[in-house]
Amino acid sequence: MQITSGLAKGQVLQRMERNAADAVIAGTTTGRGAVRATIAAKGRALKGWKDRPVGAARRGKFTARLEGIPAGGPYAITLSVDADKATVSPVYVGDVWILAGQSNMQGIGNLSGAPKPHPLVHAFYMDRQWGIAREPIHLLDESPDPVHTAAQVPRDRRAQYRRKLKKGVGCGVFFGIEMVKRTGVAQGLICTAHGGTSMAQWDPEKRSEGGASLYGSMYLSWKATGQPVSGVLWYQGESDANPDAAKVYTEKMKEFVRALRRDLRQPGLPFLMVQIGRFHSVNADEENWSRIRNEEARLVKRIPNLACVSAIDLSMDDPIHVGSEGHARLGVRLARLADRLAKGSRKELPPPAFVSARQLPPVGGFGGAYHLEVTCANVVGGLRASGAPCGFSLIDSNGADANTVYKVTLAGSKIRIETGLEENNGQFRLAYGHSLAPLCNITDSRDMPLPAFEPIPTGNAIALSPFVRTWLVSEVQPAPAGIADVALPHDRESLGLALRTFPDGFVNLHPEWMNRSGQAFLLSKVMLDEDMRLNMRIGYDGPIRLWIDGEEFLTDPNGTNPALRDAVIKPLALAKGEHEIAVAMNLNGGLAWGLFLRFDRQGLRRKQIEDGAYKLPVCSMA
């Protein structure tokens, strides 16, 4: 008896309903009549599997259908027709996965970091033979298909060929080992990935070309197992990071997944994909590399039963390929997706995901006033980072990083982003993992990463005016005992006023005031095109008194260093027209430096603010 299809040494059969597998087996035999099957584990037949009738033989051929083989193994499966028999061992019942995509699924990590082979993780290699999964599991030269190699390496030379390799670690074996830990059953990996390949090369329309096409070759490998699969692991996209391919990437992916589910006759086939990682290159297409990442992240909402996890933070073994250490982490991440999507574990949440970003109210301090709070979903155990959290940037209208994010703080599922911007009227957008090779390191407690996402609008949530930068500044004057006793002088000419402009918004008079005592007056004007409800936002570092149109508005005898932006926020209403702001400031024995002053407008709708459809006070000093 010879088995020609449906069962092979080392094979993993796919468990289905009732936690059991079926197998349809065909072959040749010298016998005639009933085909019987015995399934044994550790030398003893399983209950109900001793000489069970499973098929028939006639005219030198037989077919058999084994139904309900329980999950587990290793099994020895013996088929017999009269005295003619064949035994296949070992055989396992567990989960089977297709591995497809390009080089980061094929595996180019250093073999020095390869995982130790696991007896319950088997590969259906490129030569369509089953065996224990031992890296490298994707060797294109072992394939019989011309799409992978011009000439298949002869079997007697393969061991020697493998010994010369230095590269070849991917995520597949790590994934299989983790799935064994989670499920307790064997895992089978159907190896079909090929480096440097595009979605055009994986075109399902080329299935009829068989081994001359990537899709056709993958289909032939799946068909040769005679089994359904638990799901597909997919890592691809680098070759589509160009203007023409990137703009159709999502549609190509939809077509690919739809065709694969149709051709495998599994309409709900789980699809587990990786968001492409980094590329350290001076010549690559940065814009479209980032675009592919973004398209991949969005596929979760566009294709049912698809999950995506990022490789943006993983260590690498060359400029474009995830390293063996990175693949060890990626394999576990994919297993978490599989546990939820393919195995139905509701305990396993999807990876962290961006939900929203809002501007935080400005607070007193050095640096800018434009700070954000990002909220994430699916965070387990709080967000964390190895070292300072990295990866966020504000992108300008030219697509360049404004290099203005100076601090990121993680707190549970929220992220505080502090920037050097004073305001953002729509010219900057928030991104995580922007550019070819960003430094990203934010995960949750499961080591599930925040995915890269491309620039999203995060304009001002408040209508914030520029700082009042132009002032008439007096010479140092004698000061009364307390700032509350200071009156606004009527004789302005005696103050020795000089017109000064402070471009960065900080009215810095320290060079003139250092080591001196007394007080100084500062005068400016603002123009309003309409009546406005406002907040005055002021920071100062000395005793101060402030008047608006000659009326006392603020007195603080306790002002002291440092002068912090927006340290005091006080509401007011001003009518249309020009208004004078007058300030008296005590030099505090030469310790005072100066002040910041600006406004925010109240009573506006959020859409008005986001669209910039509003007016603000404008400094009207010439």
If you had to describe this structure to a student in words, what would you say it looks like?
The model has no long low-confidence stretch (mean pLDDT 95). The chain has 3 domains: 94-341, Rossmann fold, CATH 3.40.50.1110; 353-458, Immunoglobulin-like, CATH 2.60.40; 470-619, Sandwich (Jelly Rolls), CATH 2.60.120.260. It has 10 helices and 38 strands. Helix 6 packs across helix 7. The protein has a 15-stranded mixed beta sheet that branches. Strands 28, 29, 31, 33, 34, 36 and 38 form a 7-stranded antiparallel beta sheet that branches. Strands 27, 30, 32, 35 and 37 form a 5-stranded antiparallel beta sheet that branches. It is of the alpha+beta class and 622 residues long. Helix 7 links the parallel strand 16 (271-275) and strand 17.
Offer a quick outline of the entry:
By secondary structure, this protein is α+β, with helices and mostly antiparallel strands.
Key terms:
single chain, alpha+beta, Rossmann fold, Immunoglobulin-like, 7-stranded antiparallel β-sheet, elongated
